[in-house]
Design a protein that fits this description.
The complex is a heterodimer of chains A (260) and B (354).
Chain A: H1 2-22, E1 28-29, E2 32-33, E3 37-41, H2 84-95, H3 97-100, E4 121-125, E5 130-134, E6 140-144, E7 159-165, E8 168-174, E9 194-203, E10 206-214, E11 223-231, H4 245-253
Parallel strand pairs in A: 6-7
Antiparallel strand pairs in A: 1-2, 3-4, 3-11, 4-5, 5-6, 7-8, 8-9, 9-10, 10-11
Chain B: H1 6-25, E1 48-49, H2 74-92, E2 102-104, E3 107-109, E4 118-119, E5 122-123, E6 143-145, H3 156-171, H4 198-203, E7 212-217, E8 220-225, E9 230-235, E10 252-258, E11 261-267, E12 274-275, E13 278-279, E14 285-294, E15 297-305, E16 314-321, H5 338-353
Classes of the chains: A alpha+beta (260), B alpha+beta (354).
Chain lengths: 260, 354
């Protein structure tokens, strides 16, 4: 019976799952999957990578507008393997998130957070390199598809080297400065962060995103997030401009403003 | 077509190829006929690194003494080369220079000659080696139209706005403070606030961060500027502008190909963005033309139209040279903006002393 059970499981569950994710062959650009498009996550990872119930936002003044929508974990296994002292830092971050979340200050989002900010981004794939342009804060990064280059210096958006593995664009990101957070819940890493991203088209309008996250200073082992990205299919879809510096100046410099 | 003699085909081809030159003749540029490679999807391929650093030493406006002469004589050019060599000597000298020579108005001055440039005998501002100097060129100004290489006069409306602003500035209590007004962040420039240099400022050659990069995908050209990490996504698929209610710092760009020339028209700007130190209006419209003239040269032309600000359009034009190894670094300007803290907290601290 157990054998038949496996067989049943295989035909009913595994094959269709494989068929959905693996069998789709994306249109080609110079022989590689064409990932061009405007994409956006439709989840709450930017609030918290982990499972979280709905909750009030940090400011009562904005009522329910600033509240946090409930969301399911995008972290495989539902847990981030923090070292004990690093977990403490996450809790401190959460407590100070109104002023210390880099998003509040309009700082660049870093990788992987740029991918699942509640703003679209555009993949501009040429026959050679690939440019990622994010609407949030006009952040952008070039993915070098030539021979891998070492990070010249640590930066917010890191140094990205890409390669194709069949249907998947694999982007190896190093040189991250460790100042960006993963989300508004204060999940964090240091400048030893190493992110390996995988982008795979699973249908004309879906892009599967996975990122393996490593930082021996903060985590006991590498861990992985995964989520679906959705194409903006509107005929007039375009990246607009979200230059948020002016929105953060009162928060950043308000204490130094001349009092009347 | 098979029945047409080859000669006639060649004549037609020549007319087609040179027709853009006739049109361009009116806008002061004469790109040579050169056919760039095509992208796999059939657009002219102008991708690559196109830093503007070579042109850093070329002033925006032409020296009045040159009149309508757009290019230097051999002798004038030789002087410029000499000046540039001297500058290079100064730049590469050991720093901590107690008696610096500072380039001003085409010559070198000392702290004694212009005390405003120095404090306690040391130059105010970044060290010399910090700045890109560019290569000496014969082009006498970036502005190539009007023919005298000078910006056209401001409209009466714009003059009044300028005068009113200046009067308002003078009327403020901080106007006489040694460092000027730093009451709030809004007293600082958009550039100092790390918001943007605007479309024009992002591409005009400047003392640092002159990197430009073009990446193309089917239906798009992206013009990426190192200065404050701009990436202007330009659709080239013929779509119309969106509603002018959506105004932006960098404007909304629409492009199309005219032969091998990429023509980009940008509007929907927020009012007040400074262009050549003059705040522009909501009527600002910028037209850019990118023409590859050989494998390593992109003729770049930018026309500013703002009939509420200048009495007629004006055009800058200069070549962008391909670089194989220019490294575009991330300019995290806002993230590292300690200037804002220093300027504002410094001003508050000065007030307390009184």
């Amino acid at each position: 019976m157990r054998f038949i059970g496996y067989l049943f499981f295989y035909f009913i569950a595994v094959i269709p799952a494989v068929a959905q994710t693996q069998a789709y062959r994306a249109p080609r650009l110079s022989g590689h999957p064409d990932l061009n498009g405007i994409w956006q996550a439709m989840n709450t990872a930017n609030w918290d990578l982990l499972d979280h119930p709905a909750q009030p936002g940090p400011f009562s003044q904005t009522g329910a507008i600033g509240a946090v929508p409930a969301g399911q974990s995008v972290v495989e296994g539902g847990e981030i393997p923090y070292k004990p002292e690093a977990l403490k830092k996450r809790q401190e971050n959460f407590a100070k998130r109104m002023t210390e979340d880099p998003e509040a200050k309009c700082y660049m989002p870093g990788i992987p957070r740029a991918t699942y900010m509640p703003y679209p981004f555009q993949i501009v794939q040429s026959q050679r390199d690939i440019l990622f342009v994010y609407e949030y804060a006009t952040a952008n990064r070039l993915v070098n598809m030539g021979p891998a280059q070492k990070a010249g210096s640590d930066t917010w958006m890191g140094t990205s080297n890409g390669r194709w593995e069949g249907e998947t664009l694999v982007v190896d990101v190093t040189g991250l400065n460790g100042l960006a957070w993963f989300d508004r819940a204060g999940n964090w890493a240091t400048d030893r962060l190493h992110v390996v991203e995988r982008y795979t088209r699973t249908s004309p309008d879906h892009l599967q995103y996975e990122a393996t996250i490593e930082d021996p200073a903060v985590f006991t082992r590498p861990w992985k997030i995964s989520m679906t990205l959705y194409r903006k299919v509107e005929k007039n879809a375009q990246l607009l401009e979200f230059k948020c510096v002016p929105f953060a100046e009162e928060l950043l410099y308000g204490q130094f403003k001349k009092k009347d | 077509m098979k029945t047409l003699p080859r000669f006639i085909i060649l004549v037609i081809a020549a007319i087609v190829a040179f027709a853009p030159l006739v049109i361009d003749g009116q806008t002061k540029s004469t790109p040579k006929a050169w056919t760039p490679p095509k992208t796999p999807w059939g657009d002219p391929d102008i991708q690559g690194l196109w830093p503007g650093q070579d042109m850093v030493g070329t002033p925006l406006e032409r020296d009045r003494s040159l009149g309508t002469r757009a290019f230097l004589t051999d002798e004038e050019f030789a002087n410029k080369v000499k000046f540039s060599e001297e500058q290079n000597e100064i730049d590469t000298a050991e720093y901590v220079n107690r008696n610096p020579r500072i380039a001003r108005g085409g010559r070198f001055v000392t702290c004694e000659e212009d005390p405003n440039l120095c404090r306690n005998g040391v130059r105010i501002g970044p060290p010399n080696y910090w700045d890109e100097r560019g290569k000496p060129t014969k082009q006498a100004s970036l502005v190539m139209d009007p023919p005298d290489g000078r910006l056209p006069p401001l409209t009466p409306e714009a003059q009044k706005i300028q005068a009113d602003r200046a009067a308002a500035r003078r009327a403020r209590a901080c106007a006489t403070a040694p460092g000027g007004c730093h009451d709030t962040w809004e007293d600082e420039s958009l550039w100092d606030r790390c918001i943007t240099r605007g479309l024009v400022g992002s591409v005009l050659p400047n003392g640092y961060n002159t990197g430009n990069q073009i990446v193309q995908s089917p239906g798009y050209v992206v013009f990426r500027n190192e200065m404050i990490h701009e990436a202007r996504v330009i659709p080239v698929d013929g779509r119309p502008h969106s509603n002018a209610n959506i105004r932006t710092w960098m404007g909304e760009s629409r492009g199309h190909w005219e032969g091998n020339t990429l023509v980009v028209e940008t509007s929907n700007f927020l009012p007040g963005i400074p262009v050549a130190n003059t705040p522009t209006s909501d009527a600002l419209r910028v037209v850019e033309r990118f023409t590859p003239t050989d494998a390593d040269t992109l003729s770049y032309q930018l026309t500013v139209e703002d009939m509420k600000t200048w009495t007629k359009p004006w055009t800058v034009s200069f070549p962008l040279k391909r670089s194989k190894d220019y490294a575009v670094y991330e300019y995290a300007c806002h993230e590292g903006n300690y200037y804002m803290y220093n300027a504002l907290s410094g001003a508050r601290s000065e007030e307390k002393k009184k």
